[in-house]
């Protein structure tokens, strides 16, 4: 059954475009994902906004049946102790947990200069002067394809997200990494890009087999 988690990481996120990169990561040198034989994995998105939490968890869980969203199992457990919550997961036969936590969010404003598309005014004195003798039609035909696109200010947002993978059988963290996502505009695509960066790093450090 170990192939399921490996195939999930290897196939689902293999073709996503990305403005996301790994900032740092760590793995347990004695454990690899393939050794864990995960059959049922809980997905936990630690964000304040409930809608973003559900979008994140659903995005990952929809890709493979072994992944289950935390809001289905833990939403009514706020008064329970850590031990009681772990027992719920054990009783539900979970053997792994993937968590995503927003570490920081930064906004930056940049000025994008304007551009001119068309003929350059300098050096065309004869042509430009001659237009006056041919009426509006000639002028419009010459200059209508030419335009100026004014500059503007663009606000971009970058996100730092921590992704962890836990083994419940061993009750320990086996992999963790922090990613930075720049120019993020779509939450779903950003989640895909984060997982792609995670997969790439896990292949690099030996947590997952190479392609």
Description of the structure:
The chain is of the alpha/beta class and 211 residues long. The protein is 33% helix and 31% strand. It is built from seven helices and eight strands, in the order αβαβαβαββααβββα. The chain has helices at residues 3-12, 33-36, 50-61, 82-91, 125-130, 135-143, 187-205; strands at residues 20-27, 41-46, 67-69, 96-112, 115-117, 147-149, 152-167, 172-181. The strands form two sheets. Strands 1-8-7-4-2-3 form a six-stranded mixed beta sheet, with helices on one face. A two-stranded antiparallel sheet has the order 5-6. Helix 3 crosses helix 7. The two termini are 19 Å apart. Residues 1-17 and 120-128 have low confidence and may be disordered.
Topology:
Blueprint (H helix, E strand, L loop, with lengths): L2 H10 L7 E8 L5 H4 L4 E6 L3 H12 L5 E3 L12 H10 L4 E17 L2 E3 L7 H6 L4 H9 L3 E3 L2 E16 L4 E10 L5 H19 L6
Parallel strand pairs: 2-3, 2-4
Antiparallel strand pairs: 1-8, 4-7, 5-6, 7-8
